[in-house]
Design goal:
Elements: H1 2-55, H2 64-72, E1 78-82, E2 87-91, H3 101-113, E3 117-122, E4 127-133, H4 137-204, H5 210-230, E5 238-241, H6 242-255, E6 261-266, E7 273-276, H7 278-296, E8 301-310, E9 313-320, H8 327-330, H9 348-360, E10 363-370, E11 374-382
Parallel strand pairs: 6-8
Antiparallel strand pairs: 1-2, 1-4, 3-4, 5-7, 8-9, 9-11, 10-11
Helix pairs in contact: 1-2, 1-4, 4-5, 6-7, 7-9
Length: about 375
């Protein structure tokens, strides 16, 4: 739990940092773009004044400065149009052989429509020109830059969070493997001893009806130890009947569940064969059934095990009519350590998810749940 809280805090810190960096970048870029826009507008006012000076010049007028201003604009696209929107001059606009003056006229009208136009009076005849201009390439790139930067920051945050989650999963996997193998090792000695005692009891009390039950329970412990020993390795899946797996679960649960809870299987008439590790998968179904029994809270209820064939998908649904799961908790039921029980470690469903997804390449999820009406878990496996 401490590791989980630490990861959550780091994720929050990363998200907040990314938002702060993005907001600062956008704000600084906004002011910088605004200042450059004002500067370019001022330059175009001077450029327009130079055009006006040239239009009013006489033979004795020195046009050196005005010409220098006109020629000095090498970055800002400019189109000069008369009052009928006829193009008289343009600068810093790349046009192809297919472009015509009509294209430039349309471009100039677009500039004018955005407010980037300066009116020049021509003499005393009431004629005038419009100096229409667009943002420079540098200004356009600078306008787009904060959004590129925002995307990079977000990618960084996502990669960092993914790396943290991967590290967390790797750490959890090590804990799972170590805990499982140690549990299997610790169970080995007492199970061997119990098996020996059962054999002695069978010799001394050959007609005792309880001894076979004890023997079944010892074999059950042996199977549990075997399951734990397989966690962390990738057992080779083999063809197995899901019908038989579900039958074993029902037989096992019937003997260890209150008579108030009815467990029933619903299968096709034929055997449904899937490549799997039957021992581990049987444990998954048992875990779902035990959770369903706990959801009855000692009352009367039923658990239905459905085996469905849907093309290449084989689905197992475990449905109960227990207390259900609150919507806010559905997304957390497979998270290690999460539990709503007074007793329990919150590891059963997490381990079940690992067995289904990592060992059987399948899916397990809450198909539906309603408080007070029950829950349905669904497992999907591919035939191949």
């Amino acid at each position: 739990m401490q590791w989980t809280d630490s990861i959550r805090q780091v994720k929050i810190w990363l998200v907040v940092s990314a938002i702060a960096i993005a907001a600062t970048s956008l704000l600084v870029s906004h002011y910088l773009v605004r200042d450059l826009q004002a500067e370019e507008h001022h330059k175009m006012e001077i450029w327009a004044e130079a055009m006006h000076a040239i239009s009013q010049a006489t033979d004795s007028t020195d046009l050196t400065l005005a010409t220098s201003v006109i020629e000095g604009n090498n970055t800002i696209p400019v189109i000069v149009m008369d009052e009928q929107a006829n193009v008289t001059d343009w600068r810093n606009i790349e046009i192809s052989a297919d472009d015509t003056l009509a294209y430039l006229s349309d471009y100039g009208r677009q500039m004018k429509a955005t407010g980037n136009a300066i009116k020049i009076e021509l003499g005393d005849w009431g004629e005038y020109l419009y100096v229409c201009y667009d943002e420079s390439t540098l200004l356009k790139r600078l306008t787009q830059f904060p959004y590129w930067q925002l995307g990079i920051v977000l990618i960084f945050a996502v990669v960092a969070v993914f790396a943290l989650l991967s590290s967390k999963r790797a750490e959890q996997n090590k804990v799972w493997v170590g805990l499982s193998k140690e549990t299997a090792h610790q169970l080995g000695t007492p199970i061997s001893s119990l098996m020996a005692w059962v054999e002695i009891l069978k010799e001394n009390y050959p007609h005792d009806e309880l001894i076979p039950e004890m023997e079944q329970d010892v074999k059950r412990l042996e199977r549990i130890a075997e399951r734990f020993s397989k966690i962390g390795s990738l057992p080779e899946p083999v063809d197995a009947s899901l019908n038989e797996v579900l039958d074993h679960v029902i037989a096992y649960m019937d003997k260890r569940t209150s008579q108030k809870v009815a467990i029933k299987g619903h299968y096709p008439d034929h055997q449904v064969i899937v490549k799997m590790n039957a021992s581990l998968f049987e444990w998954v179904i048992e875990n779902l059934c035990k959770n369903a029994v706990d959801a009855m809270e000692g009352g009367t209820g039923k658990i239905d095990l459905w085996l469905l064939e849907e093309g290449d998908i084989v689905a197992i649904e475990v449905a109960d009519n227990g207390k259900g799961i609150r919507k806010k908790n559905i997304g957390n039921v497979f998270r290690p350590g999460f539990t709503t029980k007074k007793r329990g470690w919150g590891l059963g469903l997490s381990l079940a998810k690992r067995i289904v997804e990592a060992y059987h390449k399948g899916k397990i999820f809450v198909k539906q749940s309603e408080v007070g009406r029950g829950t349905t878990f669904r497992i999907e496996l591919r035939r191949k």
